[in-house]
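P.,

For your records, the input lines for the assembly:
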Amino acid sequence: MECILKVNELEKSYGERKAVKGISFNVKQGEILGFLGPNGAGKSTSINMISTVVNYDKGSIFFLDKEVKRNENYLKQNLGVVPQDIAVFTDLSAYNNVKFFCSLYGFSGKELRKNVEEALNFVGLWDRRKDLPSEFSGGMKRRLNIACAIAHKPKLLIMDEPTVGIDPQSRNNILETVKKLNENGTTIIYTSHYMEEVENICTNLIIMDEGTIIEEGTKEQLKNKYSKDSLEEIFLQLTGKELRD
Amino acid sequence: MNGFIKLMAYGLQRRIKDFFIIIYSVVFPLLEILLLGYLATNFFKGDSAITSNHYYTLVLLPFYLLTSVITVAYVAKDESLRKTAYRFIIAPIDNGAIVLSKVLSCTIVIWLCSAVNLLIVRVLLGVSFGSSTPIILLMFFTETFMASAIGIYLGICIKNFGTIKGILNIPLTIFGLLGGTFFPAGSLGDTFEKISYISPFTWINKGLIAAVYDNDITILIYSIVVTLVIAIVFSVLSVISFKKEAFL
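Structure tokens returned:
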């Protein structure tokens, strides 16, 4: 499988503290990569560097063989991010939220309307398109958050804990949406603290701690290597049971 | 500049619906013109050309335009407060488009508010500036542009909105006093008048009054050019100073 993203020796420091210490990994086209780690492991910084939100100190990122630093807009045009926080305008309808964010990617007219309709249908919110997000339940807001990230049809989608704080039904719906997106050809980097979610949808896994990648491979490879039945056990064995704040 | 038009249209829509901008740019100046105009009626009685309402319309509108620096600084943080900044940063739009769309949308909406104020005082109080109205509006535009550029610059550079308010409130009030915003500065003697030249309001107000009542636009033209230059400088500084991490 062709690599959609290549990350080489990426480093980032905040003052004296090294948040990410030279990580390297590849994301293959069409996979769902689970990006795991306890709080403060460097996951968010890594994701922010990939999504160009944070500048990195050293290393390089290649998206479809083009270096991101020199072709930032090429990555941005093909990247969708579902942030952990609900990033929508509360005073715009669901339709107008998706429409506005999709328009930032250069879409207009019929194509824009078609994309918005498809994205809202995809997350099951087309019937509620005229409603304000403030009238939505937690799960619906999360789905709208996803619609805003996928309307421009990104090739790579980064989902940062998209199921935080919602009921099992909404969570199941979102996981089904993620699978559907992947089946339609979108490559996904998925971060979550819910191991059963990761086990359910991810093909490959990266586990980070203290700014480095401490383990990577497929679910089966990791389970065989550590002779454990669940990812949670492997995760706790690798990262310890001490509280991380 | 990628995305400028979209962001500009979006910025205009948001600013027009912005409660704070409307209150600070339309309601407060009008109330103060009505109040001070009424209180100072006798002070201006001897002069048939300029009434207290004329005077306070000419000096209070520029004052409120410059104090909109504080409101605009808040606009700089709009998306970060709404958590939507992230989507702007990851979209293929230029930082320049993000910053300049804010500066220009604020400029246009606040300037339109000042034009609405001129219309209201004309209808309500019969205050008309005749053929000087276009140049007054031009002065208001460059002043609003300057206030918006400074406001966005401060909003980008200073994280805490309270700090911005604290920094700006005192000098703006002092400049207002020196510039004759609350009462004609000339009435306090020569020394006060000399000191008053450090206030931008002194130049703007003198320029406006000379243009309207003496048909002399020299000072006003200087004021327009200076405010425009400052506006451009701060717009460029805002684009340079814009850090996407700080925007979040």
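Two observations worth noting. Chain A has two domains: 1-78+156-245, 87-153. The mean pLDDT of chain A is 91.

Regards
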